[in-house]
Amino acid sequence: MVRVRLAGICNTDVEILHGYHGFRGTPGHEFVGEVADVYGVSEAAKKKWLGRRVCGEINVSCSAYGFKPACDFCRRGLKTHCARRTVLGIVEHDGAFAKYLALPLENLHLVPKNVTDEQAVFVEPLAAACEILEQVDVRSFREAAVLGDGKLAQLIARVLRTAVPHVVMYGKHEKKLALARHAKIQTKNVRGDASDLKRVKENYGLVVEATGSPSGLALAQHMTEPRGTLVLKSTFHGAAPVETWPIVVKEITVVGSRCGPFAKAIALLRSGKVDATPLTTWTFPLAEALAAIRLAQRPGVMKVLLKPENKDGD
User: Fold this and answer.
1) What is the pLDDT of residue 300?
2) Cα 20 to chain centroid, rounded
3) Dihedrals φ, ψ of 136, to 5°?
4) Quick one: pLDDT at residue 236?
5) pLDDT higher for 314 or 95?
6) Do 205 and 226 meet the contact criterion of CB atoms below 8 Å apart?
7) CB count, 10 Å around CB of 34?
8) DSSP symbol at 272
9) b/e map of 280-312 (b: 16 or more CB within 10 Å)?
10) What whole-number distance in Å separates Cα of residue 260 and Cα of residue 244?
11) CA distance 256 to 58
12) For the residues 103-124, what does the mean pLDDT come to?
């Protein structure tokens, strides 16, 4: 049982409100909290965890639930693709927009003392950005493009910059692009519509599509050079119109990318190589969650946080 200290509102949470995954329950999957109670373990194990600050992996595998036999994906070590998994705040598992949430101990990661709550609440999306480093040998590229200037795109650009000499962010919101430039990331303006296919002339060996919109995929294909790698990060409710011929003709490698390594994300925060705190726009009390979600959908707004007002005895 985890007492939530801070929870972040993600674009996926907004898409869930539009019908993504058909979820019913308490949303929210980005959080930092402290362990309030532990069940089914020894007193020594319980003492180790009680009161510790934690963040948590959102995919709960059948092996974590103790199901026997475990599914084929769990046996192969692919627990984030468990055939019977629940997903915190997304698939059949109440999430972090609450005073408390529940996760198996194996999903929890301790937060170092020098990482603040305001930093630690970014661990889950930062881990998703770090997954690109696990899937692609990014050090073989001299430059990379990130399409999108939102929260996830900002984290991806910062993570790539730790391994790739030249990272360029393409976006349409000047205030958001300014945040990237402050982190020493080059930026370029696009319009975010079909006209970009004629206006954008640059090509890259590595392109990450993180616009969160259906139109981003066409531009991403256009910008990926022959035999290049295109990483897809956007999730949204609905279909994306797409022509597949650029993938075939240019022999593009397309990589779907989702959740990632929490340990790597925590290490980047602890070392100071990535600072996500400038991405926070506002913090609301949990009681004002509806107003917070409305604000999170406004143009130019970055990360909006929810802070439960936990008191002793709650």
Assistant:
1) 85
2) 16
3) -125, 140
4) 66
5) 95
6) no
7) 17
8) T
9) bbeebebeebeebbeebeeeebbbbbbbbebee
10) 27
11) 18
12) 97
Say how far apart CA 111 and CA 83 lie, in whole Å: 29
Q: How big is the CA angle at 116 (ends 95 and 306), to the nearest 5 degrees?
A: 35
- Helical segments of 188-252, H only: 196-199, 216-223, 245-249
Sign of CA dihedral 257, 289, 214, 122: negative
* C-alpha–C-alpha distance, residues 136 and 313, integer Å: 48
User: Worst-scoring range by mean pLDDT, 22-26, 176-180, 277-281?
Assistant: 22-26
3-state secondary structure 65-92: HCCCCCCHHHHCCCHHHCCCCEECCCEC
| Exposed/middle/buried for residue 272 (C-beta within 10 Å: 0-12, 13-18, 19+) | exposed
Query: Phi/psi of residue 212, each to 5°?
Result: 75, 15
Cα–Cα dist 189/301, whole Å: 18
Given phi > 0 = left and psi -120 to 50 = alpha, else beta, which region is 52?
Answer: beta
- As beta bridge partners, residue 143 has 166
145 touches 208 (CB < 8 A) = yes
User: Do residues 132 and 264 lie in contact, with contact meaning Cβ atoms separated by under 8 Å?
Assistant: no
- Please name the amino acid found at residue 136: V
| Cα Rg of the chain (Å, integer) | 20
Calpha distance 267→50 (Å, rounded): 23
Question: Contact, 12 vs 29, CB < 8 A?
Answer: yes
Mean pLDDT, to the nearest integer, of 78-101? 95
Mean pLDDT value of segment 110-127: 97
CA pseudo-torsion sign 40, 46, 51, 54: negative
Give mean pLDDT, residues 52-74: 94
Name the H helices within 112-211.
117-120, 123-135, 151-161, 174-182, 196-199
